[in-house]
Amino acid sequence: MKQVLEGSMAIADGVRMAEPHVISAYPITPQTHIVEHLSQMVADGDLKAEFIMVESEHSAASVVLGASACGVRTYTATASQGLLYMEEVIYNIAGMRLPVVMTLANRAISAPINIWNDMQDAMAIRDTGAIMLVAENNQEAYDMHIQAFKIAENQDVMLPVIVNVDGFVLTHTFEVVETIDSIDKVKEYLPPINMEYKLDVENPYSFGTLGEPSVYMESRYNLYNAMNFSRNIIIEAAKEFKDMFGRFYGGLTDSYKLDDSQTVIVAMGSVLGTIKDAVDELRESGKKIGVLKIRSFRPFPEDEIVAALKNAKNVIVIEKAICPGKGGILSVEIRDSLFKHKINSVSVNGYTLGLGGRDITPKNIHDLVARAEKEENVDGEFVGLSQQYL
Amino acid sequence: MMKEIRIHGRGGQGSVTMASILAFSFFDDGNYCQAFPSFGSERTGAPVQAFARFSDKPIRTRHQIYEPDYIIVQDITLLKSVPVYKGIKDEGKILINSEASIKDVAGELGGAKEENIVMFPALKIAMKILNKPIVNTTLLGAFSALSGDVTIDSVKKEIENRFGSKLGKLNAEAAQTAYNYIKGDRSGF
Questions:
Q1: For a surface tag, which of A230, A375, B43, B105 has the fewest beta carbons within 10 Å of its beta carbon?
Q2: A2-245, superfamily in CATH?
Q3: What does pTM read for this prediction?
């Protein structure tokens, strides 16, 4: 059914359709509405889950870790500082190979305190071993949460999946979302969780015990391999979703008007909508330009990126997080992918914008396209600074 | 075709609620829609903005609204501190809650064309019907009449959905009265 939903409500409803058994919650802006909606669903009897209020994000992550180790489907959500507080637990969830699904309502990191959107929080956990998907709009966020459980719980993956949605820009925006009417159809897509290894008094296992030097590397290698293998499962989950529900947003990446593009804009998340509209305008004026959307940041879609960019001249990468002491983050990984494939004809320009909720406008996009034609391999330069504050 | 609305108000006046009710109403009329707050500052009384878009096609863009087709101002004192008219399209309409005459704000027009501004006594109507100085639902009714871009039936339906039966009916009545007022029926005022 098509309806107008706030992003947080769409996400909560997507989670409801996946029927998690345990949800832990601790409030932090701009994630709070999601767990509030879930709490209401549980209280109203629309979702049969144990809803556990905790005293910190560290505990929120620990609760879903413990519950997931018992073999049940689990969910939590956070943002920004809350995510940082969770971080050591996320490493543990991934290391114990527990299929927790979590929403990250992307928000800037303090200081200065800033509740608005960028992707610095996501970048802080990129090496935890969690799969990191990024939604472009609230329809994709709804669908992606259902896919996330399928990916996480795949026997050959067994990793946490973090669904990134831009704080406020998606979580607090009302727009049209088509929800799925039949929970049975979702059940068909997403069968009940079935973990081979779980805490069970009849058949005891230990999780997260001491891994001595003789086994630790192998354990990390298995995680590393599972993450690499998850590429196939993410693509499969998207395709199966399309077959069953008719909606598709690409596998690890998605292309928009790329075929003859000399200039390609690469981005993740909600800014893609503004970019696509700007690209339509630029196309009308004769510019050969397209968009590459990164849908899976971890695992990183190296092959897809190389295939999409190898014939381009100019690549513009929208950096919504910074790496002080280096430059861009996404652009560095893209350059590395091209370098490994011995492609040196492409100029990869990373531009930093949209930090801490700074609006990204169509004019920004037009300006960057003009700039990138004159520049080469820009390393995360800041765009649109006010001189008075420097 | 897409049209954009920017709402100026103060924290506590229900600007975000207004934008979301507009989005629901546009959808009821068969359009795609988008509504979002600016979250500049959530303190009561501080200037806030909220945005709404509607279109016959899915809406992709997400930037804030700089060149609106419509501007709605909940509190005329904002004109002194916020450039509310900024970016208004040539044919754009500006709806201001005020009993003052347009001549009174002539010095604060900021380039906006006088003929595109509608001064509308939302507070007077709201006080009479709701007995509360909350003007967002009244302004929604006026916007429906002024723009012709959203039906009053959809606006009333979504107001009732938002506020429940008792409060909803009262607020829908305020919207209808405002609609009638703009359309020329000023009985009682």
A1: B43
A2: Thiamin diphosphate (ThDP)-binding fold, Pyr/PP domains (3.40.50.970)
A3: 0.97
CB neighbour list of residue A194: distance below 8 Å, 6 or more residues apart: A153, A155
Q: Tell me the average pLDDT across A92-116.
A: 97
CATH 3.40.50.920 placement within chain A: 253-389
Superfamily per CATH, domain B3-182: Pyruvate-ferredoxin oxidoreductase, PFOR, domain III (3.40.920.10)
Above 90 in pLDDT, residue A51? Answer: yes
**Do B62 and A168 count as a contact with CB atoms less than 8 A apart?**
no
Polymer length of chain B: 189
Q: Which of A114, A168, A175 is the best mutation test for B, with the most CBs of B within 10 A?
A: A175
Q: Cα A82 to the chain's mean position, in Å?
A: 16
Contacting residues of B for A169, CB less than 8 Å apart: 36, 62
Tell me the pLDDT tens digit for each residue of B109-162.
Answer: 777 888 999 999 999 999 999 999 999 999 999 999 999 999 999 999 999 999
Rounded to whole angstroms, what are the CA distances from A120 to A81, A321, A356? 10, 5, 9
Instruction: Spell out which residues of chain A touch residue B35, defining contact as CB-CB under 8 Å.
Output: 173-175
Per the structure block, which two tokens stand in for B185? 């029926």
A175:B59 CB<8 A: yes
Span B28-46, average pLDDT: 88
Beta-carbon separation of B35 and A173 below 8 A: yes
Partners of B63 on chain A (C-beta within 8 Å) are 274, 359-362
Radius of gyration over every alpha carbon of chain B, rounded to an integer in angstroms: 15
Give the HSE-up count for residue B138: Cα atoms under 13 Å, Cβ half-sphere. Answer: 27
Token pair recorded at residue A255 = 């292309």
SS3 A126: coil
Distance of CA A49 to the CA centre of its chain: 24
pLDDT of residue B106: 76
Query: Hey, are the CB atoms on A359 and B64 less than 8 Å from each other?
Result: yes
- Chain B nearest-CA distance from A383, in A, is 16
Please judge whether A361 and B63 are an interchain contact, meaning their C-beta atoms are less than 8 angstroms apart: yes
Q: Cis peptide before B68, with omega less than 30 degrees from 0?
A: no
Placement of tokens 């652009």 in the chain: A331
Please give the single-letter amino acid code of residue A338: L
User: In chain B, whose CA is at the least distance from the CA of A172?
Assistant: B36
CB spacing of A116 vs B39 below 8 angstroms = yes
- ipTM, 2 decimals? 0.96
* Cβ contact A4–B60 (<8 Å): no
The amino acid that residue B9 corresponds to is G
CATH placement of domain A253-389: 3.40.50.920
Instruction: Return the closest-CA partner of residue A357 out of A183, A112, A184, A50.
Output: A112
Residue of A nearest to B32 (CA): A176
Tokens 């610095």 locate to A120
